[in-house]
Structure formats: structure tokens, C-alpha cells
Amino acid sequence: MGSKKTKAELIAENEALRSRVAELERNGNQEPFMQPGSPGKAEQGEGMERLQNILAAIPHGIVEIDTAGKVLYGNPAYHKILGYGDGELIGTSLLDRTESEEERKSLSDFLAMMARDQPPPKPYFTTRRTKNGSRIDLQVDWNYQRDREGNLVGFTSVLTDITERKQVEEALRKSEGRVRAIADSVPVLITYVDKDHRFQFNNKTYEEWRGLAPGEFTGKHLREALGDEAYDKILPYVQGVLAGEEQVFETEVPYKGAGKRFVCAVRA
Description:
With 268 residues, this protein is of the alpha+beta class. It has helices spanning 7-28, 41-57, 76-81, 101-117, 163-185, 204-210, 222-226, 228-242, and strands spanning 61-66, 71-74, 124-129, 135-146, 152-161, 191-193, 199-202, 247-255, 258-266.
């Protein structure tokens, strides 16, 4: 299996493929002088079909628009993401699919600004309305489309539907909130330290026991948070946990001068 291509690579590949398709189409309508060994019309036709198959197989939506927002090309994934039949959107305008005059003007102004100022391309996140009226979340990676003289003629974008990912992230956020609420309600010291020995979570009981402000230790290294002596004392237990062992110990740890004795169960 090859490495997964980035959105920028997909855009560049699409531009190269489209240019090659256009070249083959031009050559297909001419009678050029053929050098020995050069591809004939049949081979050129096979080349165009192969390039079109590649564009059709790309799972991301690829769309080309002119500077006014007219759709010049959209691969099957682009139409599928937005709920349209293959090719249905070609020749239409993005402005015609806005929901209000305000949104239409905003999009028109945005396209004019892009054509005028031509800021460096960078991904952005947006929502779009599908054919059936539902809203989807999209990540858009894009680049400029230029002619041979370097003049701006439009934009090429790669669209990734992130609706499901956003829903999962929201569900995880709510789940984490519930877990945190439960952890904060129990009279037991609970902390979570990552493999780099940095605090990622401390429950309310732990923070109150240490006299900490909420989240005060989050992101801090154990040595920085506990002090050298305490860190050196518990380090063997931490290393044991990272090796896959369960550690249970009773000790007194001088937290930066304030001695605390406790029984600790540490699990990976």
C-alpha cells in the first residue's frame, strides 16, 4: 500500500490530470504529425479514459470553479457529497445554492476578495447545504487555477465530508464531560499522566488535597509539578506502569516541602 496523499497533493494531481485531459482532447480533434513511437488517437483515448477513471476513484470531492463561482468540473465524489447526480452541478453557480440574499452576497464578496487579493491557500472549514436541504460539515483544501500566462482563471478545491467526525467529536466531548463529573464526585484521588510523564487530568478531590486551582497541573511534567525529590521517589512506579505492570504502594512523598502519606494504586 502506498502512503496516503495529502489534500495539496490531490489538488496538484487533479490540476495535472485535467491539463492532460484537455491536451489529449485538443490533440484528438487534430491531425498532428506523429513521430515514430508516439501515441496514436486510440492510445490517447485510452489515456483520457484512464485519467477520468482516476478522478472518479478519488474519494474526496474535487471541484473546479471560475472566479465568479461557476462549476466547471466536479468529480463523482463531489456530487455524491452534496447529494446530486453525477455531473448535475456542472455549469451551475455556487451562488445559486445559497439560502438567502445575505449568504449570496457574502459568497460573492468572498470570491471577489480571493480574486483580488489572492491570499496564500490554506484549508478552511465550512458547512454546505445538500440537495435535500440538510447541512454537512466540510474541510476545504484549495488552490488557484491559472492559465499558461499565469492569469487567475478559477479555483480548484478538495472537499472532505467531516460531518460524522464532528458528530463523534461532540459525542466524545459529552462523554468526557460525564466521566469528569463522575471522577470529580468520588472521594478518591484520581490523576491521569501520559507516557511523557505529564499530567492530563486531576479530579477535584486531588486538586483540593493538593490545594490546586482547577486545571493548574494540566500539561505540567511530573518533575515540575511535584518537585525533584517526589518525582525521583515515584519514578520507578511510573516506569513499571509504562512497562505494563500494575503498581500498588504506600509511601510518604514530600510534595515540594509538604509531606503527604498515601496508598497509591497505579494502573496503565
